[in-house]
Amino acid sequence: MIKALRPPPDISGVMNDLDALLDDSIATEGYRISARPAAEALIDLSQIDLASLQKKFEEGKKATETEKLKGQIEKKLDTMVRENKGRIDFLEKFQKLIGSYNSSSHNLEAFFKELMHFAQNLTQEEQRATRENLSEEELAIFDLLTQPEPELTEKEKHEVKKVAKDMLAKLKAEKLVLDWKLKTQTKADVERTIRDFYIKLPKAYTPELKKDKRAKTYAHIYESYFGAGESVYQGKGVAAH
After folding, report:
1. Rounded to a whole number, what is the largest CA-CA distance in the chain?
2. Of residues 151 and 44, which shows the higher confidence score?
3. ω into residue 150 within 30 of 0, thus cis?
4. What is the average pLDDT across 7-22?
5. pLDDT tens, 55-69?
């Protein structure tokens, strides 16, 4: 015998309590960037329906939608900064935004609006690799080589991109072998490869600047590439060259 369907329970009171709880959590927890693996943090902000979020916010689900957007930004920032330390300024701006809200200098409506604007800017940054005709991996090297100096012409930027692409291809194909970080010889090979390619950098790079860029690049490679094809960029596509 089929039992009669019961009417759905009224959960409006629970949802109101949840909104209140989320509102408190935004003010008290602040921003925390987690150490989750990159694969768990993947999220495409460009696929978020900001108009729908705005509509739900205006319908009264203010704290819920604000916390949802804040969490999505946190996850995306976690991944983007891990892949490219040149994006640390985005992290600092986000921390400042959270801190400003926590100090009560923003109401919830203003905070949500600023989060929306920040998400749009982050999407633009996420698409920068494509605009530069680079992969995310190549963009990280390019940023290391160009931020905060030197100033380059468009021709020189093209030359730097070629160095970044060719060097990374060489490292991945021949040098970043299994357990490369555990052996003196393989680590030396990586350092030597970076040095040999950076000799080809434009004249805007002084010997001192090249030395600084080599050190920062090696540190980036050491932190980001684990050997045998494993890296923080796992699953990322490559740019069309």
Report:
1. 85
2. 151
3. yes
4. 39
5. 666 766 788 888 989
- The sign of the CA dihedral 35, 41, 44, 50 is negative
C-alpha distances in Å from residue 74, one per residue of 90, 153, 169, 180: 11, 35, 31, 32
Distance, first Cα to last Cα, the chain = 66
Classified as helix, coil or strand, 135 is coil
Alpha-carbon gap, residue 141 to 86, rounded angstroms: 10
What does the block give as tokens for 103? 């100090």
137-147: per-residue pLDDT in tens?
Answer: 999 999 999 99
Sign of CA dihedral 111, 113, 117, 120: positive
Percentage, residues of the chain above pLDDT 70: 71
E strand or H helix that includes residue 240? none
Q: What is the pLDDT of residue 49?
A: 60
Dihedral sign for Cα atoms in the order 231, 130, 39, 217: positive
pLDDT band at 45 (very low <50, low <70, confident <90, very high): low
Tokens read off for 84: 């490219």
Phi, psi angle pair for 225, to nearest 5°: -120, 125
Q: 3-state class of 200 per DSSP?
A: coil
What's the rounded Cα separation, in Å, for the pair 121 and 191? 35
CB 150 within 8 A of CB 209: yes
Average of per-residue pLDDT across 168-176:
97
Distance CA 24, CA 2 (A): 44
CA–CA separation, 50 and 116 (whole Å): 7
pLDDT of residue 96: 93
C-alpha span between 91 and 187 (Å, rounded): 31
